[in-house]
Design a protein that fits this description.
heterodimer; A: 183 residues; mainly beta; ten-stranded mixed sheet; two-stranded antiparallel ribbon; 12 strands; 14% helix; B: 231 residues; alpha+beta; two-stranded antiparallel sheet; 4 helices; 14 strands; 27% helix; globular
Chain lengths: 183, 231
């Protein structure tokens, strides 16, 4: 019996340690360029977070060039993290691709981004984890994304945003950077 | 070693082997049965119509193949029916639609934008339109920018006051809508429908719709549909 208890305790200890390491991994800060999102949040969610676990992809739309958009997103529900996050940038000019410069905030209504042809824009969505349904979701209301550099192999830049829930009773301010190899 | 110690040692060893054997048996059963769930009771199975086991793309009147996109292995992925919902309390087609939407919403899979639509399901040779019926909507747990579980339901087929819906549930990668899994999504929907009190899990129904050939596959689908009975 004692052996079983010791074994169980060892297993619990190992898993607890792994959970602790993963949790720290999502919240640790670093001075060198971090792949993924490196953000500071205040308001409904607070703290500094490095999310290396974001995947990236392009919107497939026959009206847009293949490299006209990029999106970063987590795989909800993210274990050991306070929130799931997604961010999309697009250059909605026919034939255009992503380029350096400022990208305004695109409003999102009922999951539909109000893309305005001929403009550059983006949006961010944050869903705090551990909520019962219906989950509260936060969408960008104001701010700017800046692409500092973009090539076929790398994109990086920054963001300074305010997100709010559906009735605007809660807000999250997000500042930070993104850095993503595209290979 | 003392005789008593040897006996005790043998007992412990035997216990370990028994535990290992039980775990192995459970693992094998899961692999063989797909989701290790019980078969749907005969009383419920008997009300089910003949089910065309794939979602239908009406543009081509053929099984839907994830918008015709080849997978990384070059094969097309055919979208199986992997969910069946029975409703004994609906009183009309309209109430059945409302109750279906309410149940999915209660479980965290509200109708959401960002999914191709207009597909059909076939029961007893008749085509049934998609729910949710709004263009570019499906029942989904997260916005399309995230990796999400989503489903399209078809029906209702009505038999002796029981409203039958069939559907295809799948997990896709965010933004690009790449296929991830059929099984994860189906199991998540069954689990959450039960957890949130929207439905009872009635077990699994074998539709024999697993494909794995040189040109087409059904991904990780196991050939079973999860069967839910709305509360």
């Amino acid at each position: 019996m004692k052996k079983w208890i010791v074994s169980l305790a060892a297993l619990v200890a190992v898993f607890s340690y792994k959970f602790f390491v993963n949790a720290e991994h999502t919240t640790a800060q670093s001075s060198s360029p971090q792949i993924g999102l490196n953000i500071l949040m205040s308001g409904f969610l607070n703290g500094s977070f490095v999310r290396e676990d974001v995947a990236w992809s392009r919107i497939e739309n026959p009206l847009l060039a293949a490299d006209a958009t990029i999106g970063f997103f987590t795989d909800p529900p993210s274990k050991g993290a306070l929130f799931d996050i997604a961010m999309v940038l697009g250059n909605i000019v026919p034939g255009a691709v992503l380029e350096k410069g400022a990208y305004g905030v695109i409003p999102v209504v009922n999951d539909v981004p109000a893309l305005i042809p001929g403009t550059k824009g983006g949006f961010m969505t944050i869903v705090p984890t551990g909520q019962p349904v219906p989950r509260e979701e936060f969408f960008t209301r104001s701010g700017t994304f800046v692409v500092d550099s973009v090539s076929t192999s790398l994109i990086f830049g920054s963001m300074d945003l305010v997100l709010a829930n559906a009735d605007s009773s809660k807000t999250i301010t997000v500042t930070g950077t993104f850095y993503q190899p595209l290979n | 070693m003392h005789k008593f110690d040897i006996l005790q040692f043998m007992r412990v060893k035997l216990s370990i082997w028994l535990v290992v054997a039980i775990l192995l048996a459970a693992a094998c059963k899961k692999e063989e049965g797909g989701s290790a769930c019980k078969e749907v009771p005969t009383s419920l199975a008997s009300v089910l119509p003949e089910i065309e086991p794939f979602m239908i793309d009406t543009g081509r009147i053929s099984p839907a193949t994830w918008l015709g996109r080849p997978q990384p292995d070059g094969r097309l992925i055919q979208e199986p029916i992997n969910l069946i919902v029975l409703d004994e309390k609906a009183t009309s087609e309209a109430s059945a639609e409302a109750r279906l939407t309410a149940a999915f919403t209660k479980a965290g899979f509200a109708p959401r934008y960002g999914h191709s639509s207009g597909y059909w399901g076939k029961m007893n040779g008749d085509l049934y339109a998609q729910q949710p019926s709004v263009r570019d909507f499906a029942f989904s747990d997260y916005m399309w920018v995230f990796t999400n579980n989503h489903a399209r339901m078809f029906g209702p087929y009505i038999h002796e006051g029981i409203y039958v819906w069939i559907g295809s549930s799948s997990r896709e990668r965010g933004i690009a809508h790449d296929y991830v899994s059929f099984r994860i999504s189906r199991d998540a929907m069954v689990k959450e429908m039960v957890n949130y009190g929207a439905a009872d899990d009635a077990g699994c129904y074998f539709l024999n719709n697993k494909i794995d050939n040189a040109n087409v596959s059904t991904g990780d689908h196991d050939g079973f549909a999860g069967v839910l009975v709305l509360k």
